[in-house]
Amino acid sequence: MLKKHFLYSLLLSFFFFSCSSDETSMETSVRKYIITFTAGEGGTVSTIGGEYELGQTVNVTAIPREGYIFKDWSDGNTDSTRVILVNGNLNLIANFEVPSDFDSISNTVLLRQVVYGADSQGGEVEVVVEERVSVTAISGSRHKVFENNEIFYIIQLNEDNNVVYGEDGTGRFFMTSHNEMPQLIDNHILSDVNLNMEVYYSNAQHPHDSNAPSEAYEYIWDNGDEGVIGGKQFIASKFKNTEKYGTPVDVSAVKFGNKWRAQSNSDSDYGPITELVYKELATLTYKDIIFEYEVDLYNGEEDFLEKIKPNFDKVYENLNGTNAIDNLNTIYIYGGRTYTCGGESKCDENIGYIWCFTTIPDVGLYTHEIGHTWSLRAESPVDWDKWQFFLENYYCSDYALQNETEYFAEAFMCYFSGQQLLIDFPNQYQLTNPVREQLDLLFN
Ligand SMILES: [Zn+2]
Q1: How far is Cα 307 from Cα 356, in angstroms, rounded to an integer?
Q2: pLDDT at 16
Q3: Within a 10 A sphere around the Cβ of 9, how many other Cβ atoms?
Q4: How far is the CA of 82 from the centre of ligand 1 (A)?
Q5: Which helix (H) or strand (E) holds 399?
């Protein structure tokens, strides 16, 4: 103690002797520090700081701009207003953020909903309203449930606790509903890939419709990389109540962010999903048509082509000289299992796509599906009123008799490649002269 005190006196003495003005030198010896406050994106600070003396206090408040909330200071403190005791240089940044849709304090979610209103002509218009709704947590899930009028909807939240809306063009927050609080259940869905799936289940009488299905399953699973999971794509589905496989369309999944969402009811024809088939696919081009097929089912490209060529060559030959195949772009051949239907077709504007659910499609299947794409394309000359008259007056096939929308495709098939069918199944197919003449007008 003594030693230290002595040293201090010595220093002071030295100081006094070497300076000309004692008063100002005493002042500069008081410690001063630089304190700065800056605001990150989304707000301002009440002071930018300055030079302060040791022991002084500085008040500062972080002020968020509209649409933002204060998050924290760069030192981790979460009080928007602070009293800083000056004891060193300090640089603090106020951080702001856009608030999450989910507020954990009030247990509410900000929801954008489409409601129906009346326009000036008395018609119905869709109006988007924003509303903060009370939600309930689902055990084991990050998603929340919103109840409205005894109907329960799962609100899907992302990692930032924001609502994930569907990407089907309607921007809807839900596509499924439950008659009671849904529970997250462990329900294994068979697949070649890891689906990373959550299955929710509810079972209660519908409050307004006693005939409505009671057992409801809701599925939320990974979309993968643009629909590809582990190099494989979703090509088929299976449900508990069906022996056969359906297409991805049967699942009616809607994309919500990086997930798919779908629902099924145990009381429906299909029942709960039991399997989603994901397979590796390959493509090749033959006669200007893109073919996509399951890699597992063929020994390479050559083997695939060798197997499908005879029937497709025949189709190509039958349709040759007409524009019947001009719109066809891609043929998907997904086989290896028994499907609920033989094929499907789609037309985007004038570009046609067909799916054949068999390993080696026959001439009739190709032709029937091409008939759909040709007739449903944007520039189709098909007069549907005229064809309505034909389907009401002339038998074409048993299938068309049961499904009106199949009439044209069936007539098209019989016209181009149905002679064999007519001979083999005389009671199932007939191409009457008035129908043939109508097709002659389109293709001759
Ligand atoms: Zn069809």
Answers
A1: 14
A2: 43
A3: 9
A4: 71
A5: helix 398-402
